[in-house]
Structures are given as C-alpha cells and as structure tokens.
Amino acid sequence: MNKFVVFIAFVIFCVLAGVFLFFRYFGPVGRSSEQQVFIVPQNEVEFDITTSLKEKKLIKNIEAFRFLLDTFAKDKKILSGGYRIAPNMNSWQVFKIVTDKPGLVWVTVSGCVRKEQVGEIVAKALGWDQTKLDQWNILYKTNSPEYFEGVYYPDTYLIPVNETPPEVAKRFINRFNEMFAPYADKYIAANIRWTTGLKIASLIAREAAGQEDARLISGIIWNRLNTDMPLQIDATMQYTLGKKEDGSWWGGIAISEKQNDSPYNSYLYKGLPPTPICSPNIGYIKAALDPAETSCLFYLHDSNKQIHCAETYQKHLENIENYLN
C-alpha cells in the first residue's frame, strides 16, 4: 500500500512538474485575447522569427519555441506575411499559426498599371474567384467615377486574405490620398483639378522612359493642351485596346487602330482622356504639377531610351530618321 501511495505521489509530482515546465517554457505570455498582427517581412534573409516573437512578447522562451520548429517543422517554410496572434496563446498554438498560411499577405504593385492589372495581382495573392475580380473591375464605374481609375497607388501592401474588393480598393485609395495630401494645396494654387493632374501624370508615366524625363514630357503635354493640339499619345490607344491575346496589357499599336472611335483616342479627340489610364506614383504626380519649361511639341525615345524632343513636326521627322531608322 505504501508503494502504491508513493507511486501515485510520484505520478502526481511528474504531472505537476510537467505542467509547471510547460507553462514556464511554453505557456502564454499574458491573459489578453486581443489579437495583434505579427509580421514576417518580405525577402529579409536574416529575420529570426523566434527572436521577433519574443521581442513582441508573444512567446515565453526562445529555445523552447526553436525546439518546436526543429522538431515539428523541419521541412516547413514559414511564409512572409501577417499572422494574428494573441498574448493568451501558448507556444504550441503560436507555432500552429505561424507554420500555416498567413492571414495577411504581401501584395506589391509596381509601375503605372491600369485597374484591371491591379485586380489580377490582388486576385492571385488573395485567391479571388472571377466573381470577385469582376466586382473589382466595375468598382466606382458609375458611383464616384473619379475613383474608377488612377487612384490604386503602386506600393507594397499587407492585406488580409478575407478582405472584399471594396475594402481592398479603399486601402489603395487611402494610400493614394496619403501620398497626394502634401500636394493638394499646390494643385489648388495652380488652378489644376486633382483629377486633371492625375490624368496627365498617368500619361507621363506611360510615356516616360524613367523619372528623369518626366518633367520634359509633362511640359510637352501641357504645350499640346495649351495650343489646342491633339495629344496623339499611343498609350491612350493602348488603354482602349485593353488586354491582348498574349495576356499583356500594353504594347505597340497598328496605324489603323488610330482611327478607332473611342473617347480615349487622343488622335481623334483633343484634350485629356475621360479618366487616367493607369495609377501613377507621386513622382509623376509632381511632374504634372511642375512641368519643364520647353518649346517642344514632339518627342521620341531612341534605342537607349534617351529622349529627343522637337519644336516642329519637320524636326521631329528628322529625329525619327536620325534616332529610329
């Protein structure tokens, strides 16, 4: 009987010791159930997830958590993104979360791309079906049309996978508003509507070989507008054509296509297109506000992407002969 009592006492001791050790090394850090987003950065080779979790006060012991990773996740790669973790979660619960798919994913939009292209990038990242992508593509088309195109600011975003198309659109638009805010008064002072500036900025972005010739192209566009000359910009026609059979959105256009009737056809119709043709970054928005002083009306880029401008069409033809033919 004494041996049995000793055995039971020993078992109880082991269980209590195990519980004590578990809570000491693997237990929750706090009692709050309020989740915070733990971020695993993009392309950061030296990022140590265990150290970061400890610094954020989401695990108790670094070595204990590394034991879980080394034992149960040897072949698993922890994905970059955002993970929702609460202080009242124990290390095993945290481990299960960070070795699963992230609740927020990184989405990067670069260059000046049109709304449908942004939608394709987001749809791939968030796993949208065609219904959600179609919903994205028509957002603001009839309601608040000034937000239909041009305001989906190119940047890197951390987006919850369950966000709806309107919520994602609002995220992009908020970023645009944040970037544009320092220049809003300057546009007002220059008597330029922000929608006009955004249209011009989008044309500059699609026409420029880089930020370095943005102000010159801006000056030429303003010269054409101020002299009532058709803009004659191929990028507006590329926008009209939409997606090509090879899956690309932008590219060369045939001469015959310049006769197609469209409000975006800047060969047939003077003035700016109905909307921007893509979402420019702040550099091009600044260039639209601050054009270079030039008397040029024409321009081209040579094979090295060097810009050459001309005041007359005859000089422009000479530039074509000298730099393109």
Short description:
The chain has 325 residues and is mainly α. The protein has helices at residues 2-25, 49-55, 62-72, 91-98, 115-126, 130-138, 165-189, 194-207, 214-226, 234-241, 282-289, 313-323, and strands spanning 36-40, 81-85, 104-108, 156-160, 298-301, 307-310.
Quote the average pLDDT.
92
What proportion of the residues is helical, as a percent range? 40-55%
The best one-word shape is: elongated
- Helix segment tally: 12
Cα Rg = 29 Å
Distance, first to last CA: 105 Å
Structural class: mainly alpha
- Across the major sheet, the strand order is 1-2
Q: What's the number of domains?
A: 2
Tell me about the biggest sheet?
2 strands, antiparallel
Count of individual beta strands? 6
Explain the overall architecture:
46% of the residues lie in helices and 9% in strands. Strand 5 (298-301) and strand 6 (307-310) form a beta hairpin. The chain has helices at residues 2-25, 49-55, 62-72, 91-98, 115-126, 130-138, 165-189, 194-207, 214-226, 234-241, 282-289, 313-323, and strands at residues 36-40, 81-85, 104-108, 156-160, 298-301, 307-310. With 325 residues, the chain is mainly alpha-helical. The strands form 3 sheets. A two-stranded antiparallel sheet has the order 1-2. Strands 3-4 form a two-stranded antiparallel ribbon. The chain has 12 helices and 6 strands. The mean pLDDT is 92. The protein has 2 domains: 26-102, Dna Ligase, domain 1, CATH 3.30.1490.480; 115-294, no CATH class. The radius of gyration is 29 Å and the shape is elongated.
